[in-house]
Structures are given as C-alpha cells and as structure tokens.
Design goal:
2 helices; Umud Fragment, subunit A; 7-stranded antiparallel β-sheet; 7 strands
Length: 131
C-alpha cells in the first residue's frame, strides 16, 4: 500500500458515513433524491439529471409545478412531470417534451393524494454543479 492510501480510504469511509447519516436524517422528513431517465422532460430536465423532491404535508400543488408521481402503467416506477391542469382531487400531468414519454394523455389524471412530492431542486448533469 502506498503512503497516504490508508488516510484517503479512511477519509472516504468517513465521508460515506457522514452522507449516510445525513440521508437517514433527511429521508424521514420527506426529502427524496431521484435520477432522471429518458427525455420526456427535455429541455427542463435531461437524462442523468438529479432531482430533489419533498413530500410536504399540506402542500397544495399548482398548475406548472414539477412533481414526482407513481407510473400507473409500471408499478414501482416513478415519473417526474409538470402539472398541466387540476380538478378538485385530481391532477393531469404533462411531459415538457410531448414527443417522448408517457403522461396523462396516455393514462389519464391521477389523484392528488398519489403525488409523491414536489420537485424542490433539479441538478444538472454530473459534469456540472447543482444550480
């Protein structure tokens, strides 16, 4: 082992522990991190972007908000979409890129109660910093 490697490895382990601790503290508060897959939200979000979403009790979504919702056609999968319109208890979701992905044009409106959270922050591709 080269000199300094043990220190670097220990620093990495310590950093991983700190990150895990922060994650365990944040997730119960309703914060979740997601990775964008696909081009349905181009140009707002791109493949590989990270989004931070928060489920806030009492949050009332509005038209134009970016939200995370379950994919009705694929259980266990989530979608990030923009709220196109709202009813009393439902939301219609839309892709920013209408030529890609599935949205309420394909699966109809969703109950507001099924929304996982609102997008609070969107990070660009990994080669750039968070905005």
């Amino acid at each position: 082992m080269r000199p300094g490697c043990a220190k670097t490895r220990d620093e990495i382990i310590e950093l991983a522990g700190l990150l895990l601790g922060e994650l365990l503290r944040v997730v119960p508060l309703g914060w979740r991190l997601f990775r964008v897959r696909g081009a349905s939200m181009e140009p707002t979000l791109s493949e590989g972007d990270w989004i931070l979403a928060r489920s806030a009790p009492g949050y009332e979504p509005g038209v134009g908000d970016l939200v995370v919702a379950p994919d009705p056609s694929q259980p266990g999968r989530v979608l990030v979409k923009r709220i196109r319109s709202m009813g009393d208890s439902t939301v219609a979701l839309a892709s920013d890129n209408p030529f890609e992905g599935r949205d309420s044009r394909h699966f109809g409106s969703l109950p507001k109660s099924e929304l996982i959270g609102m997008v609070v922050r969107a990070g660009s591709r990994l080669e750039r910093r968070w905005p």
